[in-house]
Amino acid sequence: MDSMPAAAKVNPPAKRKKSRRVRWALYIMLLPALALVAVYSYGPLMGLVIAFQKFEFSKGLFGSQWVGFENFRYIFGLQAFTRALSNTLFISAFKIVLGLIFPIIVAILLNEVRLLWYKRTVQTFIYLPFFISWVIIAGLFKDILSPNTGALNAFLALIGLKPVYFMGNANIFPFTVIFTDLWKGFGYASILYLAAILGIDPSLYEAARVDGANRFRRMLNITVPGIVPIIVLNATLKLGTVLDGGFDQVQNMISPVVYKFGDIIDTLVYRVGIQASRDSMPRYDVAAAIGLFKSVVSFFLVSIAYYLAHRFADYRIF
Question: Among 92, 252, 104, 95, which residue's Cα sits nearest to residue 183?
Answer without folding.
Answer: 95
